[in-house]
Amino acid sequence: MSSGRLVNAWSSYDSEEVCWWEAIFPFELGPGVLLPWQDAVLTAADDTDMLRIYKLDRIGYLRERDGYLVDFLRDHPESVPHSEDEWRPAGFALNYLEAFPDRGSKTRLTYADQEGEPADAWVDNMHEFAYPLGLIRSYPYSPFSIEYFISELDDTDFPNHVGTIFSISTDIWFPWTSSFSHESESGLMDEILDNRGLAAINGPRLNTFLHRMRDEVARIGGIWTAKGGNNHLQAQLNEEGVNLSAPAQLPEPRPAHTTDLQQATTAARRCDQHTVDRNSKAAGIRPAATRRASG
Q1: DSSP secondary-structure letter at 249?
Q2: How far apart are CA 115 and CA 97, in angstroms?
Q3: In this structure, what is the dihedral angle of CA atoms 153, 155, 158, 162, given to the nearest 10 degrees?
Q4: pLDDT tens across 244-262, in order?
């Protein structure tokens, strides 16, 4: 791993499904598996800082008033009525986790501050988070999303099932990343960058969450699958989630030195300073000294 200053050698993509993991539960398991599954998902997401839920407007939930969401749903199942058509028991709310910015939930990401030190932010909009850091191509997706679905199609690999998709819109968790969000000397957007410094910090959170989900799926009797829409990221997936010790992917990775990303930083500074300040505040970007936010 390269030593010295950390740099933001990661990208924000124009898709919220750069990589995704699916938990699939056939109908024959019965809807009774869903409430324990929901408890496991929400508890693991909160424990690992992958998703901290502050509000769910559709059920009138507010964390600062109602406490932890799992406890709120156990105590107030009437807040989400039973729906036979959607194969959903009372109190089941995973399908209410809207997958778009300002949805009332955020993900903790560690990035490189101006001194090259690790700092934390709670993020729900990758554009507002990434652009002030010098990533000139970034998109307003949540970094991490949870989506519940129901399928009765007979032409799918697993017909007649419900499931949950866990997806990401950034490669910040991966050791080898893409120059997609950066201006490179060659002008290409698919050069491989060395992001091992930040992956060593962010990656274990994602992997711990995925490990707990995979174990819970196995306990329930469901099916667990992992998919990647990007070849170089797909090659870094393993049974644990992201292979943080993955070898460099071809082509030979470009060292992620600060000078390599200077053009991107310069471009970002051309934007209106008021916009940068507003976006930084919205992203919750803090100095390293205050990086462990309480949420």
Answers
A1: P
A2: 36
A3: -10
A4: 999 886 444 444 444 344 4
Please tell me whether the overall predicted TM-score, pTM, comes out greater than 0.85 for this model: no
CA distance 6 to 200: 11
Burial of 21 (0-12, 13-18, 19+ CB in 10 A): buried
Residues 6+ positions from 40 with CB-CB distance below 8 Å: 212, 213, 216
The phi, psi pair for 231, rounded to 5°, reads: -60, -45
Distances (CA, A) of 255 to 8, 178, 189, 191, 284: 12, 12, 15, 11, 28
Beta bridge partner(s), residue 26:
161
How far apart (Å, rounded) are the C-alpha atoms in residues 53 and 8?
26
What does the block give as tokens for 161? Answer: 């099932």
pLDDT tens-digit readout, 173-204? 999 998 888 876 555 567 889 999 999 999 99
- Choose among 140, 95, 68, 41: nearest CA to 295: 68
CA distances from 105 to 96, 117, 142 (A): 12, 26, 9
Tell me the C-alpha to C-alpha distance, in Å, between residue 50 and each of 100, 164, 251: 15, 15, 31
Beta strands in the chain (DSSP E): 19-26, 52-53, 55-56, 61-62, 105-112, 118-123, 144-151, 161-168, 176-178, 192-194, 223-228, 237-238, 241-242
The three-state secondary structure class of 183 is: coil
